[in-house]
Design a protein that fits this description.
Blueprint lengths: L3 H4 L2 E5 L4 H13 L5 E4 L10 H5 L3 H6 L1 E3 L2 H4 L3 E7 L10 E2 L1 H10 L3 E6 L8 H5 L3 E3 L12 H13 L18 H15 L11 H13 L5 H21 L1
Parallel strand pairs: 1-2, 1-6, 2-3, 4-6, 4-7, 5-7
Helix pairs in contact: 2-8, 6-8, 9-10, 9-11
Length: 244
């Protein structure tokens, strides 16, 4: 059985131009559980001091990045190579969406690689020719301007949907405030609104109070939120008194 690491696609950046973009790609990768980055002839060499700050904590991806002289060397151990490009560039290959390619990666034998070209020009025809298939995204034909990190995150996200990643844990929610605290809040509102003739005319007062009560009980405030609202009302009350 292949290991979980073997099922992870390798992210290959071909002739990346800016360290910042390498860092942003690393950040995109790690958000969705990908850790193996390979660089083909980075323009400014490697390591690049500009990559770290842009990675925003994805240091393990940058630390493990390996450099190759050619794309063929970078994907030599990969049986399934996908070239990301907005067009076929004269090469006849199967064309897949990121979602379709990700499904293949999870089931195909052997290692897989998603290959991304330089920021300005994308992959050359010879680069695409090395791939088994092309990944392209339905995109606005009048504005096809994905940057490198955006392209990486599209593929990484689609792969992650089949990887059973844990959802980020949420902070424990506070329980709803007890009824007596809500009653205090409602009473506070009413006490401030009564002198302002909010419940006028008298014939509509009961319905208006009921609507106010429904509004204030509907959200399910916790006790901290109720205390905050009471503090707001008290502050407004003090301000009104000083002005008066």
């Amino acid at each position: 059985m292949p290991s979980s690491t073997d099922r992870q696609p390798v992210i290959v950046l071909v002739r990346p131009q800016l360290g910042e973009n390498i860092g942003k790609a690393a950040r995109a990768m790690l958000n969705f559980g990908l850790t193996e980055m390979r660089l083909v002839a980075p323009r400014d060499g490697w390591p690049n001091p500009s990559a770290g700050p842009a990675a925003a904590g994805a240091d393990q991806v940058l630390a493990g990045a390996t450099v190759f002289g050619t794309l063929a060397e970078a994907v030599a151990d990969c049986a399934n190579v996908y070239a990301t490009t907005v067009r076929k560039r004269g090469v006849t290959k199967p064309v897949l969406t990121p979602e379709e390619a990700a499904r293949e990666v999870h089931t195909a034998p052997g290692r897989s690689a998603f290959v991304f070209g330089p920021e300005r020009s994308g992959l050359e025809t010879d680069d695409v020719a090395l791939a088994r298939a092309i990944i392209t995204v339905p995109i606005n034909p009048e504005f096809g301007s994905l940057n490198l990190a955006q392209a990486v995150i599209l593929c990484a996200y689609e792969w992650s949907k089949g990887a059973d990643l844990q959802q980020p844990t949420q902070e424990e929610l506070l329980p709803p405030a007890p009824q007596d605290e809500l009653e205090g809040l409602i009473g506070h509102f009413e006490a401030l609104l009564e002198p302002k003739d909010y419940f006028f005319p008298a014939a509509r007062a009961e319905a208006t109070r009921r609507t106010l009560r429904n509004l204030l009980t509907k959200p399910g405030w916790n006790h901290l939120e109720v205390r905050t609202l009471r503090g707001v009302l008290s502050a407004l009350e003090r301000t009104g008194s000083r002005r008066g």
